[in-house]
Amino acid sequence: METTKIKVTLIGTGTIGLSFAAFHLAKLSPSQLTIYDTRSDLSTYIEEFLPKFFESGKSPADLSEIRLAVTLQEAVSDSHIIQESGPENLDVKRKLWKEVEKYAPNDALLWSSTSGIPASQQAQDMQDKTRLLVVHPYNPPHIMPLLELVPSSETSDTVISRTQDFWRERGRVPIHIKRETTGFVANRLAFALLRESIHLVNEGVVSVSELDQIVESSMGPRWSVAGPFKSYHAGGGPAGLEGFFKNIGGTVQSCWDDAGTINVGDGWEEEIFKQAKETYGTVDVSERDRITRRVLDVLEEEKGKGTS
Amino acid sequence: METTKIKVTLIGTGTIGLSFAAFHLAKLSPSQLTIYDTRSDLSTYIEEFLPKFFESGKSPADLSEIRLAVTLQEAVSDSHIIQESGPENLDVKRKLWKEVEKYAPNDALLWSSTSGIPASQQAQDMQDKTRLLVVHPYNPPHIMPLLELVPSSETSDTVISRTQDFWRERGRVPIHIKRETTGFVANRLAFALLRESIHLVNEGVVSVSELDQIVESSMGPRWSVAGPFKSYHAGGGPAGLEGFFKNIGGTVQSCWDDAGTINVGDGWEEEIFKQAKETYGTVDVSERDRITRRVLDVLEEEKGKGTS
User: Fold this and answer.
1) Which parts form a coiled-coil structure per UniProt (chains A, B) (predicted)?
2) In this predicted model, what pLDDT tens digit does every residue of A223-233 receive, in sequence order?
3) CA dihedral of residues B278, A304, A83, A51 (deg, nearest 10)
């Protein structure tokens, strides 16, 4: 479908919902966007908070042209894409999709931004479970390229590929996650590294700030350019990943054997929360996002050359 | 000490040794650098391979002015810094430092690039164990900013701070690791994420290529700008890291409970090595390094503004 004709409905106006609104408004005109939320001050709320998601606080178009829906029926009845970023509550989502299904066009794509509630559970009360899938962003979605597409076993292949096409055409990186796994993929990976980070700080090997500096000056930049498999495949020389494990598989296994298995509530919290607070206070997120954009611009330009 | 007077001796001319040579030559004149290696073709070897470590294959100065030492005594007798990047073999390193100690000036700094053999073990045969520490780079050191400084319990504080100063003055990020931990810190963190990556590919959740794309489009860029603690501290809003764990500590713990505990030799190797080979063939490392430099340039420029 032509971009100029696509109608997108966003349900929920928390941080993720507004960030997705900012993303869509970079490609669509405000009149193609509908926002639905039960809050009574929706109009003034959008007017105040949505501009913060644009660089230098300026939106590219007249935000008053966004359609603010009062009923769910009105919100979804002529939409091509219905994207919910509501509370992380299964009952709420089950009821929502059951209602959406009544009013939305038959071929509308139904996306949930959830970070943890599988499409299979959300779709339980739907007649047609083929159209719903999780489209999980990496926060904030108006900046970060990744979208994890997590269908249920009933989501149709056509719906998956239409969803992939939508994001690819907009320069994003939609990855089809083949199984409904706890935490999907990105969070599982990040949390694995976070667990070891907590362990090392808890053991007094480095501080919170030193640990962050280590990641920022090594893995961060490296993995921006080449993910872990590609990096270690390169590290193994001509023998690739196999050569890497032949050379230092023993060291890898020693690290795994010695890895921390700390849990939430184990008592590390107080000291580490304190260090984080003392080191960072309140993080200037707009500054972080501005720098992240610059890094992503370099990467996008280089990938555009077909080098990665 | 003035940079123009510092004399550096490099022992070992593998990939790490040559990369360190390239790093030093960006700051020192070739005549301040001594390279020692027992290979008989050292001169032609350096001439052929060292230039590859410079951008566009051109070294900034006349490499023939590097002093190539024939004996260890000659190599170290008037050096301020002696940096070994030899084979990962404890016996070799123990003997080396015992010899180096005989001939080197009393206040020379002694650094090992090892990724796994602690300074305490390497120093066993030395009279004065206060000067030796591990200075572990993130490969390749002529590009990546991180140096893990891992002293033994006998390394003196002065030696640690002189070593930190050296690297900081050269725009690098030397982090003092407080305990001799298996794999130090960076590799432990990276291998924790690698383990979960292998698990997820092995379970068929995503492919090798998809996993890399996920990291390249999410954590990589994010952690270039803000490490894991800073990121999640920001993610928790005004309540910081504590707020983050209050909000989604349950999801974090679920991911930890479900994390893969795969080991080297468990049988995942064949399929994953094959996927890596088919996806990447031989990685163009010079291309990777060129893009990495661009990313690091952005980050350095931004940090120079005092924003991170």
Assistant:
1) none
2) 999 999 999 99
3) 150
Give the span between the Cα atoms of A155 and A131, in whole angstroms.
Answer: 6
Is the pLDDT at A287 greater than 60, yes or no? Answer: yes
Superfamily the domain B8-176 falls into: NAD(P)-binding Rossmann-like Domain (3.40.50.720)
Query: Beta-carbon neighbour count of residue A207 at 10 Å?
Result: 19
| Phi, psi of B222, rounded to the nearest 5 degrees | -60, -50
Whether residue B307 has pLDDT greater than 50: no
> Dihedral angle at the C-alpha atoms of A20, A22, A23, A28, nearest 10 degrees?
110
Q: Is the pLDDT of residue A1 over 80?
A: no
| Dist CA B50 CA B25 (whole Å) | 11
- Tell me the C-alpha distance between B28 and B5, whole Å: 9
Q: Do A219 and B190 touch (CB under 8 A)?
A: yes
Long-range CB contacts (within 8 A, 24+) of A209-212: A209/A275, A209/A279, A209/B229, A210/B175, A210/B176, A211/B185, A211/B189, A211/B227, A211/B228, A211/B229, A212/B226, A212/B227, A212/B228, A212/B229, A212/B230
Q: For the range A129-136, what are the long-range contacts, defined as Cβ-Cβ under 8 Å and sequence gap of 24 or more?
A: A129/A154, A129/A155, A130/A154, A130/A155, A130/A156, A130/A159, A131/A107, A131/A155, A131/A156, A131/A159, A132/A97, A133/A159, A133/A160, A133/A163, A134/A184, A135/A83, A135/A111, A135/A163, A135/A167, A135/A174, A136/A184, A136/A186
Contact across the interface for B226 and A234, Cβ inside 8 Å? no
Tokens coding B100: 């180096």
Name the CA dihedral angle for A243, B36, B113, B29, rounded to a multiple of 10 degrees: -110
- Per-residue pLDDT reduced to its tens digit, B206-227: 999 999 999 999 999 999 999 9
**A301, closest residue in chain B (CA to CA):** B291
Q: Do B298 and A291 touch (CB under 8 A)?
A: yes
Report DSSP letters for B122-172, one per residue. HTTT-S-TTSEEEEEEPSSTTT--EEEEEE-TTS-HHHHHHHHHHHHHTT-
Report the distance separating Cα A190 and Cα B192, nearest Å: 9
Instruction: With a cut of 50, say whether residue A181 has pLDDT above it.
Output: yes
Residue A306's pLDDT is 58
**How far apart (Å, rounded) are the C-alpha atoms in residues B214 and A227?**
8
Residues of A80-99 as b/e, b for ≥16 C-beta within 10 angstroms? bbbbbbbeeeeeebbebbee
- Nearest CA to A159 among A181, A127, A126, A135? A135
- Contact residues, A window 273-302, toward B, CB-based 8 Å cutoff: 273, 275-277, 279-280, 282-285, 287-288, 291-292, 294-296, 298-299, 302
Q: Measure CB to CB from residue B227 to each of A215, A254, A294 and give the nearest one.
A: A215
The per-residue pLDDT for A2 is 76
> Quick check: do B8-176 and B192-306 share a fold?
no
CB neighbours (10 Å) of residue A45?
16
Nearest by CB to residue A192, choosing from B192, B233, B251, is B192
Q: What is the CATH number of domain A192-306?
A: 1.10.1040.10
Query: By three-state DSSP, how is residue A58 classified?
Result: coil
